[in-house]
Specification:
Layout: H1 2-19, H2 26-32, H3 37-43, H4 47-69, H5 75-91, H6 93-97, H7 99-105, H8 107-133, H9 142-165, H10 173-181, H11 190-201
Length: 207
């Protein structure tokens, strides 16, 4: 039974990513994993149930990424974080492309996601404050820290949707990482600029 449920969720995720969340019906999911619609309903009665179970995996992955990053958010670790974020966004592409439709469809996800957004922004604030304290970013007042954290969250979570709408495919990790680093460049101290340049020299960061 566990294998069947895993196959159903994997097939659902493939279809959501390929066709868009709103365009996928339960019959298509049953066909994708080669089971009857009745068997599908036995495990997941509605599309809302399928969506919520996939969303739980997304939240776990997002939380793991931010927890790892905030242990020691040096520039090198931040750059590695963007690698992992890109992979996560590609794996769950439908969520980042169809966020508004998803939260409109499932109120439970809407509530959880709004809480998660604030947690992500708080983590970004800690990241910024850490790098100010170690001299890699210029001094900012709390208002600027909060606004920068908001901007970073928006840049990270809207990138995939904007890239697809703009026709920037195939999606490239270097484009994403360059996009994210631009949110920090205006705030580099001299030390931060040297550290950033060294990462570019080491080819960790794309030009």
């Amino acid at each position: 039974m566990k294998e069947t449920k895993t196959n159903i969720l994997s097939g659902t995720l493939r279809l959501f990513n390929e066709r868009g969340f709103v365009n996928v019906r339960l019959q298509q999911i049953a066909d994708e994993v080669n089971i009857s619609i009745g068997n599908l309903a036995y495990h997941y009665a509605t599309k809302k149930d399928l969506l919520f179970n996939i969303y739980k995996d997304i939240v776990i992955r997002q939380s793991e990424l931010l927890n790892d990053l905030n242990i020691v958010p040096l520039f090198e670790n931040m750059d590695r974080h963007w690698d992992n974020v890109f992979e996560t966004q590609i794996k769950y592409a439908f969520f980042y492309q169809d966020t508004l439709e998803v939260i409109r469809f499932n109120e439970s996800i809407a509530i959880e996601y709004r809480n998660h957004i604030q947690w992500e922004k708080d983590q970004f604030q800690r990241l910024i404050q850490f790098n100010i304290a170690r001299g890699a970013l210029i001094t900012m007042n709390q208002s600027t820290v909060e606004k920068t954290a908001d901007l970073l969250w928006l840049m990270e979570n809207s990138w995939l949707q904007r890239a697809v709408i703009s026709g920037n495919e195939p999606l490239k990790i270097d484009d994403f990482k360059s996009h994210m680093w631009q949110g920090f460049v205006p705030y580099f101290s001299h030390t931060g600029k040297q550290e950033y340049d060294q990462l570019i020299k080491n080819k960790s960061i794309p030009l």
